[in-house]
Design brief:
Blueprint (H helix, E strand, L loop, with lengths): L4 E6 L2 H9 L8 E4 L6 E4 L1 H4 L9 H7 L4 E3 L3 H15 L6 E5 L2 E5 L10 H16 L3 E6 L2 H10 L5 E3 L5 H7 L10 H9 L5 H5 L3 H8 L2 H8 L16 E12 L2 H22 L1 E12 L4 E7 L7 H13 L8 E13 L13
Parallel strand pairs: 2-4, 7-8
Antiparallel strand pairs: 1-6, 1-7, 2-3, 5-6, 9-12, 10-11, 10-12
Helix pairs in contact: 4-5, 10-11, 12-13
Subunit structure: Monomer.
GO molecular function: damaged DNA binding; DNA-directed DNA polymerase activity; magnesium ion binding
Cofactor: Mg(2+)
Length: about 350
């Protein structure tokens, strides 16, 4: 059976939510993130015209766009909107695989509305998202996940693009390898040095060659060069960690400053856990010093940590391990991993022992 896969990707999601909620920001170049010492978490399309991109250092973004407006992130708002969008997806199919707050795969081969056209489903979902959230989404439709992802990127923003079964191989052959999902910048540069610039070049290499030069993932490259992707849409895919971090306007140098800086980060992580009923066994503290040297300190419990005071105490105990400070601290972060939902804990005996 030829599958019908849709990839939905929200357009400039964080920035678009901020512009929706603050009319004064609409039509202006904005970046979600720290204005002085942080990085850009998301950029509006007005900012992208100047070359501003996510993960770019804030100072670089300001050089590219001096009129750039920085906005503090509001992750609780982004999560709330993401849940609204997820509810729309589930009206069409239970086979929804979230990749992040702003994108997901849907398998609509058999769907809850009995619609025969995946393209019409994608168009309807886009309209429903716009109606419910006032935000634009781009959709890609194809017969596997790899092509659906490529298709959603192809006509952004507010796009809808379809790659039919008889078009897949030709589409991949013409595409530069740096646009392939799963081929990062470093890998693309390595491929270019080997004379591999597009899908057609990649298709010329046999599987043994690709595995020799790229390891196990070489098999994946061999398949996608032929538009082959047999991965299923997995609704059981779970996130591996939850966390929060903050880059400070100035370096923190005292115990009081560090503890004060860590408190809201702890609260943010716990707020997510309490709302989603997802808890973790491993707490990790991340510390980035003024020279960008980064260290982590972790501690694990035998079962998920469901007590807020205990979570807070262990977080501060991890902070104690970095004293005496070798230098000022520019960033602190806390994350929880080895996650479990409370729904999966029924009947289990919980313990806080380490």
């Amino acid at each position: 059976m030829i599958r019908k896969i849709i990839h939905i990707d929200m357009d400039a999601f964080y920035a678009s939510v901020e512009q929706r909620d603050n009319p004064e920001l609409r039509g202006k170049p904005i970046a979600v993130g720290g204005s002085e010492r942080g990085v850009v978490a998301a950029a509006s399309y007005e900012a992208r015209k100047f070359g501003v991109r996510s993960a770019m250092p804030s100072k670089t973004a300001l050089r590219k766009c001096p009129q750039l407006i920085f906005v503090k992130p509001h992750f609780e708002n982004y999560r709330a909107v993401s849940y609204q969008i997820r509810e729309i997806f589930l009206e069409y199919t239970p086979l929804v695989e979230p990749l992040s707050l702003d994108e997901a795969y849907l398998d609509v081969t058999e769907n809850l509305k009995g619609m025969s056209s995946a393209t019409e489903i994608a168009r309807e979902i886009k309209a429903r998202i716009k109606e419910k959230t006032q935000l634009n989404a781009s959709a890609g439709v194809s017969y596997n996940k790899f092509l659906a992802k490529l298709a959603s990127d192809y006509k952004k923003p507010d796009g809808l693009f379809v790659i039919k079964p008889n078009q897949g191989e030709a589409f991949v052959e013409s595409l530069p390898v740096n646009l392939f999902h799963g081929v990062g910048r470093v890998t693309a540069e390595k491929m270019n040095k080997m004379g591999i610039f597009n899908g057609a070049d990649l298709k010329e290499k046999d599987e043994a060659f690709l595995k020799k030069h790229f390891g196990k993932i070489g098999g994946y490259y061999y398949n996608i060069a032929r538009a082959i992707d047999n991965r299923i849409v997995n609704p059981e895919r779970s996130r591996k960690s939850v966390g929060s971090e903050n880059t400070f306007f100035r370096d923190l140098e005292t115990r009081a400053e560090l503890e004060s800086g860590l408190e809201p980060i702890i609260r943010d992580v716990w707020k997510y856990c309490a709302k989603t009923h997802i808890y973790g066994r491993t707490i990790t503290l991340k510390v980035k010093f003024l020279d960008f040297h980064t260290i982590t300190r972790s501690k694990s419990a035998l079962s998920p940590i469901m007590d807020k005071d205990f979570f807070e105490r262990i977080s501060f105990e991890l902070l104690e391990q970095i004293y005496p400070l070798p230098k000022g601290v520019r960033l602190l972060g806390i994350s929880l991993s080895n996650l479990e939902s409370t729904d999966d804990m029924i009947g289990k005996q919980l313990t806080l022992a380490f």
